[in-house]
Fold this sequence. Notes:
four-stranded mixed β-sheet; globular; 372 residues; 8 helices; alpha+beta
Amino acid sequence: MPSRPPAIEVRKVPIHSVADASELTTLIDDGVIHADRVIAIIGKTEGNGGVNDYTRIIADRAFREALVARGADAEAVSQIPIVWSGGTDGVISPHATIFATVPEADVVPSDEPRLTVGFAISEVLLPEDIGRRAMVEKVAAAVEVAMARAGITDPADVHYVQTKTPLLTIDTIQDARSRGHDVFTEDTLTSMDVSNGGTALGIAVALGEISMPDDADILRDRSLYSSVASCSSGVELDRAQVVVVGNATGIGGRYRIGHSVMNDALDADGIWEAIRSAGLDLPERPHSSDLDGRLVNVFLKCEVSQDGRVRGRRNAMLDDSDVHWHRQIKAAVGGVTAVVTGDPAVFVSVSAAHQGPDGGGPVAAIVDLAPR
């Protein structure tokens, strides 16, 4: 049996400029979290969200340097999974959600399920692995390790799996060729969808949502998906960073997580259902004011419907040669989400192949259940 994991503190902070980590520093200085107890950070940066989005690298450096400056060990900080999703299109506001363990003496006791986090890093993902069964297998193995570290034995207690994986670049494509291998696609932007989709299927396999797929299923059979996967990709790593977030009993703490899915880009009810799943009692027709400051954050993936329609109405996102559909659907779903939460600092990430139903996506919500 895995050892009991520590209780978790989780806070959302704004990012005031591309290289800003001042709000993380304030949390540490105020004693809300300890620099050496930060175990994961998930955030949105304001770049283009594409292959060449350097804002992810700048934000990563700023937050790691802030932790080291406040006393955390530099080597340990280098191993912390920090997942940045680029692109704050529309009203989405740059921010970071910080997860840290809580000293035993400060834990709010509870016998109810409370937030737990586990992380793992996969084996190296070679360029020729991306979008193929080898990727699915390597990601699935890392998810199982992260679950064990979170103290989760039942996959039903997993409500959110955030990953960051490599995508393809000209250099990595040439590397594969030099070793006699081909790659799934030579379109580097398309490789973002490929990497995210292959990773999501690895999560689904690890959690028993689907059986092991064939190479031919990846990015083609959209009926295969995970309801808890949130996958991002970038150029700054060569392995999968996996953060498993769920609930466990006996660890205590203030926070709980739940999940649901959006069935399409306008499905605000799916967001509300995720918040209810996390433990908040809400009226039948809720308003953002009913959240009473208890919602820490929501985490969503979104994807344009492959048939180019939303609720029977045609849209032109897939045909638009001026603005890529990644940016359009992210802005649209970000607006829907901000209406629900009353806060535009929401984690909405695009490229949701095999993450939730086609045209929709998974939603996870973390709430604060501390007595008031």
